[in-house]
Amino acid sequence: MELRVQQGNIAETDVDLIVINLFAGVTAPGGATGAIDRVLNGAISRLIAQGDFSGEAESTALLYARANGGSGAEEQGGLTAPRVLIVGLGSSEQFGIGQIRRTAAVAAQAAAKLKGVKTMATIVHGAGIAGHDADAAAQEVALGTILASYRQKRYGREDADAGLASCTVVEYSAAKLADVERGVARGKAIGRGVCSARDLVNEPANILTPVEMAARARAMASEVGLKITVLDEAAMQEEGMGILLAVSQGSVNPAQFVILEHAPAGSSESPLILVGKGITFDTGGISLKRTGGMWEMKGDMGGAAAVIGAMEAIGRLNVRRRVIGIAPCVENMPDGKAFRPGDIITGMTGKTAEIISTDAEGRLILADALAYVARFDPVAVVDLATLTGAIGTALGMHIRAGLFSNDSSLEEKLMAAADHSGDRLWPFPMDAEYGKPIKSDMAEVKNSAGRAGVSSSAKFIEHFTEGYPWAHLDIANMVLADSRINAETPKGATGYGVRLLVELAERYAASA
After folding, report:
1. Within the chain, what is the greatest distance between any pair of CA atoms?
2. CA distance 307 to 450
3. pLDDT tens across 134-168, in order?
4. Which of 90, 88, 40 has the alpha carbon at shortest distance from 67?
């Protein structure tokens, strides 16, 4: 979908549909909505007066501008578009940045359902009486529109619905135009990153092998201007990544260790490092998973997808901070060479791990990835992983991911970034006692504590961190949706984590 900015009167925009808005409790519409109401001879005011539209959040009303099948601006009282969509904003006191994004998503989703609507124009929700900065509001309008317009790739023989072809963001004030253009450009960059992560997670595992995932990261890096290095298994062996390679040894598809770097001109500070679990398919290995629902394990690389998508957006935005993205990509399969429960393996730090379950493999590949990043002297390291089913039991599905950290300042930054971005988090404890269930009789740690829960899993990962602020995000309950969650989040891959990581990177850039 093409997204562009135009200065002028939205009533004069030549599109299939124009989008305006209304706060709850308003009886006499003002601004752009009031202007359209006058063009339509009070049709919106009558809708309000008759109780057919109240401005409730995410509600919509559709008006047809052309009477008696007429055409042209003259028959419509000066309105070019044949249809007008009004979206409710809810209470003006509670209308925050997230509501702007959701409003735009509701409009785009409604537009996509209308026959014959391929082009639409929208005002910048929130930049009027709501008082939000024009650039911030425009960013969320663009982002919400892109997220709602996402279409999953189809492998069927029938043509997939192409959806909207274009959206024009119309700003009446010439003085605000530059801010709106800047905001829309930012929203496009972040939205494309989220959609890239969705594409990766949605792909079937027979296509998205570790090698293919690395190839797609290379293509993205070339387009955006990131530095990329990919370690093959021989290079990982030289690094001493015995724990990571143990997970890979049962698969015919070799592991890949992807390193993406964004280094703006003049940057010499310690980097922010983002690490994503990239299990392109997880059978559970010898500790085989149940068959029901195993197909969802194509999404077990959701952490790596989020890191790759975030690095794409960070590159497009040219965030003024050095950021490194790490994506260890591995397939966990149960053949005759596969690692076994009871094995003891050694990672690149020299620390040993006893394998209790080969289905607790994500924390194993993170162990060597987190050891590897210590060489960069990072300002902070954040890993994302579809780690435990227990996180969904603790927090529910598609509401918040779990946050575990050994540094209070990093935890605060992540919580602030989460609240602003909409990729929400909830902090969990990391007391020393949670490490007791993973103590091993034969090695330093064991990779599963049974029913001991999410914090003990995080303590296993922490064991392999070395001298830097670190946070672990358990996103297993956030990556794949069985049905549409809301207007901006479709069925399938959600792209969770991209917005959060971009926001975090920008906060570190602002504080440098």
Report:
1. 84
2. 29
3. 999 999 999 999 999 999 988 887 766 778 999 99
4. 40
Give the closest residue to 96 by CA, choosing from 505, 419, 502, 472. 419
The pLDDT score that the predictor gives to residue 452 is 59
Helix (H, G, I), strand (E, B) or coil at 208: coil
Rounded Cα gap, residues 385 and 473, in angstroms: 6
Per-residue pLDDT of 189-230, as tens digits, reads: 999 999 999 999 999 999 999 999 999 999 999 999 999 999
d(CA 498, CA 390): 23
d(CA 237, CA 472): 25
* 33 contacts: CB under 8 Å, gap ≥ 6: 20, 21, 22, 44, 86
How many Å apart are CA 437 and CA 458, to the nearest integer? 12
Q: What values do phi and psi take at 282, rounded to 5?
A: -125, 105
Check residue 99 and give its pLDDT.
96
- pLDDT tens digits, one per residue of 37-55: 999 999 999 999 999 999 9
- Give the single-character DSSP code of 263: -
455 CB-near residues (< 8 Å, 6+ apart): 404, 428, 429, 430, 431, 434
Give the pLDDT score at 221: 98
- Which structure tokens are listed for 363? 């924390």
Look at residue 70 and tell me whether its pLDDT is greater than 50: no
Closest listed residue to residue 9, CA positions, set 121, 108, 164, 117: 121
Active site residues: 289, 363
The pLDDT tens digits of the residues spanning 294-335 come to 999 999 999 999 999 999 999 999 999 999 999 999 999 999
* Beta bridge mates, 325: 260, 274
The DSSP secondary-structure symbol of 434 reads G
Beta strands 470-474 and 401-405: pairing type? Answer: antiparallel
Mean pLDDT confidence for 470-481: 98
The residue whose two tokens read 């918040």 is 400
CA-CA-CA-CA torsion sign (192, 198, 202, 203): positive
Collapsing DSSP states into helix, strand and coil, what is residue 465?
A: coil
Residues near 412 by Cβ (< 8 Å), separated by ≥ 6?
A: none
- Tokens at 61, concatenated: 């009303």
Stated pTM of the model: 0.96
Q: CA-to-CA distance for 300 and 389, rounded, in angstroms?
A: 12
Which residue reads 């009027």 in tokens?
128
Coil, helix or strand at residue 240: coil
